[in-house]
Amino acid sequence: MTDEEISKQITGQKKYSTIGAAEIALAIGDARNSVKTYNITDENIDRAVRLYACHLLFLRVIKHKERFQTIKAENATATKFDQAMSDDAWGEFQDLLSEQGYGEYGIQIL
Fold this sequence. Notes:
single chain; mainly alpha; two-stranded antiparallel ribbon; Phage protein
């Protein structure tokens, strides 16, 4: 899968749809470099790049813009931290790594 195809998958998600193309391309490039350090099967590389890029976009863009929620009630306005905003891509990336055998400890007798 090309970086452009991964970019389309990312921008197709509402959470990332307002992020600029240059920022997404940078995140994909950085993610591709980071994912190379893992021994991930070929059929999961694109998924890993997409998830890691989404994680980077969350860290770089989303958490700074959307983590506060403003509530208005009659004559008052209050801003509170939105705890529902979370980095789902990071959790899914960790699951993928677990599927690939990372983070598992055990003894193997040969």
